Amino acid sequence: MRVKIIGSAAGGGFPQWNCNYRLSRAARRGMPGVRSRTQSSIAVSADGTDWVLFNASPDIRQQIAQAPELQPAADAPLRSTPIRAVVLTNADVDHVAGLLSLRERQPFAIYATAQVLATLEASSIFNVLDPAIVPRRLLAQTEEMAICGADGHPTGVVVGSFPVPGKVALYLEQRGDPAADFSSDTGDTIGVRIGGTGGRGAVFYIPGCSRIGAALRARLADAACLLFDGTVYTDDEMITARVGQKTGARMGHIAMSGEAGSIVGLADVKIGRRIFIHINNTNPVLDENSAEHAAVKAAGWEVASDGMEIEF
Ligand code: MLT
Ligand code: MN
């Protein structure tokens, strides 16, 4: 099984188009240790030929251009792709907007929860992917589901999926009610287990998660690798950076640091490799020479960058 991180940044990417914060500025001027990153997505293959994307980011065209394994093979038909399916972990813009770039009457399958399928259904722009050519399938919350191409042929990638605490997509929040609670743990946001039996030997992909509870900790025990929500280092980071008013929690993301953070929350869970992904442009770990980056490494975590590969 090959897992390739094709986009390691959170929504907006790094640097973000309109961001003038010190980290985006450092990335733009090519400061050593501050690498640019595209938006949240991974590619998985069981056989090295057929690929399944987990999330379709707005940067998908660039991500395919940077990954030869996701491009049409030299001996393939005039219109073709090795991408057989796209699995969605929520309906956020950074996870679904790339679907629009996969138009051109090219067969592949979309897998998502009932909530996310309903969101796609409600936006007629997604009809550029004709459901007769690009079937939309319910991602059952089961331990094992074989991901198949549009023709029903198994890709060899088998996933388990489960709801995690998060929230509905930003554009689904009702306007004008800042105090409203948009949190959800019923399938608006999910985590996926790729391969393995039970947790053992599996790779978990959880790019959005607002809380770590006992059930999640039990599920992750003995995982080979965890790719986990690394949006913010501290909960109030966007406020102290003066780029926004929202906390990580309000956006549906647990912080890395602090007593309620993910580093502490998962410290005593046995996991082979733990890697932060979906990293926001305010997160100081983006600077490899920062104290925060060193702290994360000292706690046994890696910080994902684009192109990183995991074989298991
Ligand atoms: C998130 O992860 O919180 C979203 O991607 C935010 C957004 O939609 O910009
Ligand atoms: Mn996101």
UniProtKB/TrEMBL annotation:
What is the protein name given in its UniProt record?
Coenzyme PQQ synthesis protein B
Which of UniProt's keywords are assigned here?
Answer: PQQ biosynthesis, Transport
**What is the gene called?**
pqqB
**Family, as annotated:** Belongs to the PqqB family.
Function description: May be involved in the transport of PQQ or its precursor to the periplasm.
State the organism of origin. Answer: Mesorhizobium argentiipisi
Q: In which pathway does it act?
A: Cofactor biosynthesis; pyrroloquinoline quinone biosynthesis
InterPro entries recorded: Metallo-B-lactamas, PQQ_synth_PqqB, RibonucZ/Hydroxyglut_hydro
Transport recorded as keyword:
yes
- Domain Metallo-beta-lactamase, first and last residues per copy: 51-279
